[in-house]
Amino acid sequence: MISRRALLKWGAAAAAAPVVVNASRLGPLVEGADALLIDTRYVRELVDRVYASRIHACDGDVTRVWFETLDPAWRKPGFVVAGITGDDVLFVLERLAWDRGRRVVARNDLAPRGADGRSVASWIIAPVHPSVGG
What we know:
Layout: H1 4-15, H2 27-30, E1 35-39, E2 55-58, H3 63-74, E3 81-86, H4 87-98, E4 102-109, E5 120-127
Parallel strand pairs: 1-2, 1-3
Antiparallel strand pairs: 3-5, 4-5
C-alpha cells in the first residue's frame, strides 16, 4: 500500500511532467504507485527496463490492461495506479474505479485541449477510505 508521503511525492512529480515524456523521466513517477499506465499516443518512448514490470501501455484502449492487470488487482485491498493518458482513457478508468472502491485522488492536465478535443493528464487512482462519503 502506498504511504501518504509517497502519494504526495508522486503527485508533485506528476505535476511537473511534460506532455511528451521519455522513459528517463518515468523513474520518479513510478516510485509512489504500484503500477503506471502510459498512453502511447502521448508518450514517445516507453518502458525503462528497471520499471518494466510496473509500467503498462495502452493506445487509447484500456480493455487489455483492465482485464489482465487492473480488475484483478483492484479486487484486493490497496494497489494504487498512476498514469499519463488522454482524458478519454482517464474517464473510462475513473468509471471502472468507482465499482472497485477507488477514486481519482489527483489529476493534473498537462496540455490544453488539442484540435481532436482531447487533453493529456497525469493522475492517481487510489482506494478511498470507507469514512469518505460520496
